[in-house]
């Protein structure tokens, strides 16, 4: 019996919830949760159907990608997840999806500006595009690590998909939903070819300051990963 069954259970439940809502398909994408007391993370296995997944299928890795627990092959994007946890002390959960609307913006290289208060409050000042690098490579991990220091919680991966963070998995999954709503609204707006209205800059800064305040609490350990 693993000491981390609760965290692994959360990974499975969140993955299945995101499949139900259409943000993850069959085996695409991957997600993880930080295990703070072990300097490790629990991540979905590679190429394994979310509907079949149980907590025993979830892999536990340290940040050097050594397998601590789990018989299955860990996600091919495990290095990316480790890179995020090492770089961002305020992030305790990472969700990578191929969600359709954000992925469409990834094809036209269109970052999402500050359109809604809720967007900035939870995703950051804007949703930037991280330049293309092939899946499962150190190039992709390095590109991501380089871009995430601005403390945004959602990014679009050029010609690939999306990446969302949270102080726990529930928040990261909710950020996936906010991102998709914003991506769809932005795409539709681009189609109208009308002038796009953004939220006023001072409001953007107030909303982002609230996000940073929460993140600093996580960095100080005042808000932990879910269930801790
Ligand atoms: Zn992917």
Descriptive keywords:
8 strands; binds zinc ion; 7 helices; 228 residues; alpha+beta; eight-stranded mixed β-sheet
Describe what this molecule looks like in 3D.
The chain is of the alpha+beta class. It is built from seven helices and eight strands. It has helices at residues 5-20, 78-87, 100-108, 117-123, 138-147, 169-192, 201-219; strands at 30-35, 40-43, 59-62, 67-69, 93-97, 128-130, 154-157, 161-166. The chain has an eight-stranded mixed sheet, with helices on both faces. Strand 7 and strand 8 (161-166) form a beta hairpin. Helix 3 (100-108) packs across helix 6 (169-192), helix 4 (117-123) packs across helix 6 and helix 4 (117-123) runs parallel beside helix 7. The radius of gyration is 17 Å and the shape is globular. Bound molecules: zinc ion.
């Amino acid at each position: 019996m693993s000491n981390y069954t609760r965290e692994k259970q959360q990974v499975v439940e969140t993955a299945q919830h995101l499949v139900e809502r259409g943000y993850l398909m069959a085996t695409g994408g991957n997600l993880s949760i930080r295990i703070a007391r072990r300097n490790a993370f629990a991540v979905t296995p590679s190429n394994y159907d979310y509907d079949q997944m149980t907590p025993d299928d979830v892999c536990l890795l340290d940040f050097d990608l050594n397998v601590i627990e789990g018989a299955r092959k860990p996600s091919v994007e495990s290095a990316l997840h480790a890179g995020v946890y090492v770089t961002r002390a305020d992030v305790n959960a990472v969700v990578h999806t191929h969600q359709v609307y954000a992925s469409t913006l990834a094809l036209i290289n269109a970052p999402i500006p500050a359109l809604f208060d809720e967007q900035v409050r939870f995703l950051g000042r804007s949703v930037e595009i991280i330049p293309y690098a092939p899946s499962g490579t150190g190039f992709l991990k390095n590109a991501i690590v380089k871009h995430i220091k601005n403390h945004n919680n959602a990014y679009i991966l050029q010609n690939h998909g999306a990446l969302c963070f949270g102080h726990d998995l529930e928040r990261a999954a909710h950020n996936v939903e906010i991102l998709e709503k914003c991506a769809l609204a932005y795409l539709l707006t681009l189609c109208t070819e009308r002038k796009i209205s953004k939220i006023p800059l001072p409001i953007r800064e107030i909303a982002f300051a609230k996000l940073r305040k929460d993140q600093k609490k996580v960095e100080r350990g005042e808000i932990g990963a879910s269930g801790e």
